[in-house]
Every structure is written in C-alpha cells, then in structure tokens.
Specification:
alpha/beta; single chain; 394 residues; Rossmann fold; 7-stranded parallel sheet; 6-stranded parallel sheet; 13 strands
Length: 394
Amino acid sequence: MKVLILASFEGNTGDIFSFSSFESLVLDALQTNIELTHAEMRDFYKNSQKRYFDTEFLHEINGHDMFVIGGGLYFDVRWDYSHTGTTLNFSDDFIKGIKVPVLLNGLGYAEPNNADENDPVQKGIFKKFERFISNVSGLDNWFLTVRNDGSMERIAARFGKDFAGLFKEVPDNGFYFYKDIAPYTFDEEMPTVGFSVANDTFTADRTAAEKVNHLNDGVAQIVQSLVSKGMRIVFFPHMPRDIDAIYQIMQRVGVEGFRKNVVIAPYNPSGINAAKTIVSYYKSCDIVVTMRFHANVIALQNQIPLIGLVAKGIVSGERIVSLYEKIQMSDYVLTTDENDPHFVNRLIDKINYILSNREECVAQERAAMEMIVRHRTEYCGTLRAFYMNQVSRD
C-alpha cells in the first residue's frame, strides 16, 4: 500500500513522535504493510515556499493509495492568506482534485491567544476554517480526526457541538512511539529529575518577558536545591529555542553549578533513531517536569512519574491541562504565574511527594494508558471501515 504523508519530519522532537507511529497504525488497522513517502510540511509554509499545494503536488497525491496529513498542530487557525485559515492552504479545486482516501490523522486545533472577537480579519479566518471542514466532511474520501488534547472541546466552543461532531477524537500519535527502548545508563546512580522548559510558548505581549524571567528564576532555584540534595537533573531540548531556555537557566545557576550532576539530553530531532535516543534519557529519569505537550505524552506512554507544568500565558498550557483531565490525572498538573511567590516550594514539594509515592503515580499512568489503548483500538476499527468502504467503491 503506497501512502503519502504530509507532516513535519525534523527540527522538533514532538513532530517525530507525532508521525512515526503511523505505520504501526496502518498495520494494526488494515493488516497490510505500507510504502511510505514523506512530504515535508515546512516546505509548504508561506515563509518557505519551496513547494505549493498545486497540480504538481496533486498528481503526487493521486499516485498513491492514501494521502495522510499529520499528526501535528495543523489546525492552527490564524492565517489570513490561506484558503482554510490554516497552513493547509487547500483551494476548492485542490480539494476536488484529490481522488484517493484522505486521512487527517490526529491533528491539533488552536486559536491565537487573546484573539479579538470583534476583529473582522480573525472572524474571516474562522469562517474559512468552518467552510473548509464543512466542505471536506461531506466528501466520502475524507476521514477527519483530532488528537486528545482538548482540540474537540475548543472546536465545539468556537463552532458548536454539531460542528465538532464532524471529527473523531483519537489518541495523539506519540502515545505509540517505540516503547521497547532501554533507559540511558549513567555512570553514577542517583535520583534523576528531568525538565522540559518552554520559554517560547508564552503569548507575545508586554508581560511575556516578566513571565519568562519568573519561570527561569524558579527553575534555576529548583535545580540548585535538588542538586544540593544529591539529585541529578536532565534537561530535554525538543526544539532549537529550548536550547536558549536551558542557557538562560544555566546563567542563573552559574556555570560551576551546571558542572555537577546536570545533564542536557542530545538535541538531534532528525529522525526516529535520534528520537529513540532522547526517549532513553527520559526513561532514565525517576520523574520528569514537563512543559512540552509531547514530553508529557512520552512520559505517560512509558509510565515515568511526571508533573505537567503549566505557566500562565503558555499557549500550549490548555492542551496539557485538557490531556490530564481526559486521563483523570489532573492532580499531576502544577500551574503557576509570575505573581506566584511559592512556585519554587510548591514544585519541590510535589517532586518530593511523587518520588516518595512513585507507584501511586505509575498506577494512574497505567490506567490512563489502558484507556488510550481502548481508544486506539476503536480508531483502528473505524479507520478500517473507512478504507474498506473506499476500496469497495473503486
């Protein structure tokens, strides 16, 4: 089975987690092997324009047995230049020209933070997205799914429950990244705490710098405290800007402070083997404190005790909160803002509590993954029915 998949394949570790489990999904759902061809989503971005959604790409799509989009945050409804209001700049003619089955595979939906409800441009963008989805949902060869990060609820809040019902909610693809990966082995045994820190996801406004400084100051104090108690710290950069966040924290701790028991996991989001290496570092941790959405996903998948850290103003925060609500683990989310004087102590206390009650957290993660497995099995069944219906039509 020849499949063309449009996604992001490098530059962000989360993207690798998102797309890489698709082959196993097809194998489970359709009981067939696939020949997978990649189309890099970043090549189609307006700021790149290396490729276009044109007749040439349409010909490539129709030369395959299925066209898959995602996973990824491709329902990011903020682009006035686009026919759909998203980076999927599909014209009506382009959509009509696709003759093979199309799977929107666990996409994320997001809106601009603090969007002006009365802004005619933003209203027009929402209308474009609504028209796009209404159009393709009426086509027999399109199957629309969103990931379990609150996308369904955000769509319902904006467009209504009936509109949200045009989608099927499915587990994020990252929950099925390669699981049988051995933990990285350090030379010295000691409790290990992982951090994924995301400075770049704060809403860009006059308070953003203050929020970033509050976060970095707090994490630096926590690093100093934990290291002084004989613990190891591992930082996880998922994308280039995370490297700067780690550097900002290092400046606060001091270079000498970073020399002792502080590790930075490899930043090499260039393929599946590199992503497996990063997972091995995750699996070496006794607990991880995670601001990146897919850092939470990987920890949950591997039943690593975790804390979802949500800072006020973080764009991705609602996705993390919603995920934890869906898996009934909201007690493992810690929220903070720049006016929280007790952030450091609250997070240290929570880390210490989970380290002392590790099995309690692991048991809840195990139950959460059982729920996610059931949802994926259901997804496989509906995907199988969709594809077999397409085959019978041919």
